[in-house]
Write a structure and sequence with these properties.
GO terms for molecular function: metal ion binding. With 98 residues, the chain is mainly alpha-helical. The protein has 3 helices and no strands. The chain has helices at residues 9-13, 33-57, 74-86.
Length: 98
């Protein structure tokens, strides 16, 4: 997921990753019906992604200067931070089935 001004699709193709961008109005004042639903779905997902990013930012190691001697370990640091966030309680309560 990226903002509409970011064009990284060519970098993602080799990794078989789909880039999700909010649809543009292209000179129109309103979206067509299908784009309204797509925009709504993306916006809902984006809220949760921003919350997860906020939880990852809580790890202070990521807010300090990173010494050059550990730059090679940054992938591991982010992986551990992400794994720890995944172990925290859910951001969205699980729905109860009736």
């Amino acid at each position: 997921m990226a903002d509409s001004g970011i064009n990284i699709q060519d970098l993602l193709l080799s990794r078989e990753v789909k880039l999700v961008i909010l649809p543009l109005t292209k000179g129109r004042t309103q979206f067509v019906k299908g784009k309204v639903e797509k925009t709504s779905n993306i916006a809902r997902a984006r809220v949760h992604i921003e919350r997860v990013i906020g939880r990852i930012k809580d790890f202070r190691i990521l807010s300090n200067r990173i010494p050059l001697n550990i730059v090679d370990q940054l992938d591991d640091i982010f992986t551990v931070a992400g794994a720890l966030v995944n172990l925290t309680p859910p951001l969205v309560p699980l729905s109860k089935k009736a």
